[in-house]
Amino acid sequence: MEYGTVMLVILAVMGGFIAYLGDKIGSRVGKRRVKLLGLRPKYSSILITIITGVCIAAVTLGIMSVLSKNVRIALFGMQQLQRQKEALQEQRDRLITQGQILSITVGEKNRLIEEKTHLLQQQQVQLDGKTKQLRVTQVNLQQAQLARDEQAKQLSFIQLALKEAKRQREQAERDKNSAVADKAAAQRELTELENTKTQMVQTIEHLDKRIQLLKESMTHIREGTVMFRVGEVLSSTVVHGGGQEIQAREELSKAMQMTNRMICSQLGIRDTQAVLVYISPEEFKETAKVLQHAGPQPKLVRVIAAGNIIVGEPALVHVQLYDNKLIYRQHEVVYEGRLNPQDIRGNAELEVMRILRMVNKEARSRGVLPDPLTGNVGTLPATDMFRAITEIKQYGNVPLRITAVCAADTYTAGPLPIVLSIAPVNG
């Protein structure tokens, strides 16, 4: 039998019982002609009937309130339900408004991504064109150098011939008995050789100029070499958030200026007013707002290359913000692993590399930021690695425990310096 049916049966039984009692009481009052509150017996009987009906209604509502939570809410909680309904309606309207704002923001971000992708494609096409031009210029330079070498060889031969002609002319002048015709022929030959020499010198000068032009062209093309690859970290700075918007902008501007000075220093540019780093105004404004609302805790500002940065072109960058937290304290264990003899035998180098990969994975899971290009959170000096490999091999067929310990306090930005500790397993 269902809950509602049980409640109806109970109400019917209680109502009938109360009605029966009221009828009995009313009958006795009528028969004995009892007066209530000074009323006549007729009106006293009517009053008892009314009181009986009120009792039936009160008992009905009381039982329903006890047995049903919905009835209690309907009787005593309608105003609360109305307030909850209005609050939910306001929350729904607010969520709809936020959804519309997020849709607009996502559309703007997608547009920026398309623009950056198109710019990257254009830069790649320009790079391919410069590479082809460099190859053609190199071929032309090689051909010009070969031609110059050939002309130089011919010039040396002509100079030898000229010396021989001069010697013959001197011999002709000394020899008074030589024929005038032979002397004139020698003079003509000498003149022709002089003319040929002049032409060859002019040709060599022309080739030298062409070689110089080709070298300048190669230098110009080489200036288009990629200096920073897309995604490469240009600088990392720790700043404090919160405060006014102008303070957040100043902190962000300092990070951008530091990156600009670093690039100028690498390029050998001494002009302190030179501006090479460029960030879109929208991204700068959005990042400043995030920094402003980040609170007083320190923030790590990472400036990364938005595309391949070519020497001589503006450096388009993106800015990333992270919480600058202390991830590892000095002497804290980063990773601990065990090596069995069968794993070590002939594979000590591979096992050390595997341990380093596990250290890298563990550090990244804890929050140390990796290098976007290599994916590594730190490096181990080659001397320490060779020392660890040698020490592993010296233990032979003994189970070992390798422990990677943090060598210095390491924050979110990294890198993570570690020291490998190797010891045999006891028992």
Describe the structure.
It holds the Pfam family DUF3084. The chain crosses the membrane at residues 6-22, 43-67. This is DUF3084 domain-containing protein. InterPro entries: DUF3084. Residues 148-210 form a coiled coil. By secondary structure, this protein is an alpha+beta fold. The chain has 4 domains: 3-68; 128-222; 232-324, D-amino Acid Aminotransferase, Chain A, domain 1 (2-Layer Sandwich); 328-424. The protein is 65% helix and 14% strand. It contains 10 helices and 11 strands. It has helices at residues 3-32, 41-67, 69-76, 78-174, 180-222, 245-267, 281-292, 341-344, 348-366, 382-395, and strands at residues 226-228, 233-240, 277-278, 298-305, 309-310, 315-323, 326-328, 333-339, 400-406, 410-411, 418-424. The strands form 4 sheets. The chain has a 4-stranded mixed sheet with strand order 2-4-6-3. Strands 8-9-11 form a 3-stranded antiparallel sheet. Strands 1-5 form a two-stranded antiparallel sheet. Helix 2 crosses helix 3, helix 4 runs antiparallel to helix 5 and helix 6 packs across helix 7. The protein starts with a helix and ends with a strand. The mean pLDDT is 76.
